Amino acid sequence: MKFLIAGLGNIGPEYRETRHNAGFKILDAFAEASNVVFEDHRYGFTAEVRVKNQTLLLLKPSTFMNLSGIAVRYWLRKEKIELKNLLVLVDDISLPFGKLRLKPSGSNAGHNGLGNIQDVLGTQNYARLRFGIGNNFRHGAQVQFVLDNWTADEAAALPERLDTAVEIIKSFALAGVELTMTQFNKN
């Protein structure tokens, strides 16, 4: 069985260490742990990983965050991957830093990347793993906050949180969304 694991972020070195690139950061950790390298393809950078008997196509869209749906739809169709095997990795300001929440579906909660995916696919019925980045910003400063780099404390805590996110992805592919939620959403 094949899965599409799409991490949301923005391309370019100026965005590499920003909170908004949490999805890319998770996929980079997964690729590094799996000894695979991303290759530049149409609408994104991809890498393929085998986890037991499952194939995971990791996708970092090159369409920028707000047009992520174009890349996701393209790779779902190209690889003939069912919607139930799509997992989108995304930053979330409504969760405290480092908190991880897997959901089988849901609204875009104001996230433009998720909103575009929902618009392009015509559904919100796909799994998403939300990576909490917190909301420690003053009124009106949300954009600057998500586009700022991780603080020193956040950067120090990231490796452990990224390792957990990688384990959640593996569990999603091997055990399914419901069992994975039961195991990991309690933290």
Q: Give me the number of helical elements.
A: 6
Radius of gyration: 15 Å
Say how many strands there are: 7
* CATH architecture type: 3-Layer(aba) Sandwich
In spatial order, strands of the major sheet run: 2-3-4-1-5-7-6
According to CATH, what is the topology?
Answer: Rossmann fold
Share in helix? 25-40%
CATH class: Alpha Beta
Order of helices and strands: EHEEEHEEHEHHH
Tally of domains: 1
Rounded average pLDDT = 95
Strand content: 15-25%
**Major sheet size, sense and barrel closure:** 7 strands, mixed
Shape: globular
Low-confidence stretches: none
Taking the alpha carbons of the first and last residues, their distance comes to 29 Å
Structural class: alpha/beta
CATH superfamily: Peptidyl-tRNA hydrolase
What is the topological layout?
Elements: E1 2-7, H1 22-34, E2 39-41, E3 44-51, E4 54-61, H2 68-78, E5 86-92, E6 100-103, H3 112-121, E7 127-132, H4 142-147, H5 152-175, H6 177-184
Parallel strand pairs: 1-4, 1-5, 5-7
Antiparallel strand pairs: 2-3, 3-4, 6-7
Helix pairs in contact: 1-5, 2-3, 5-6
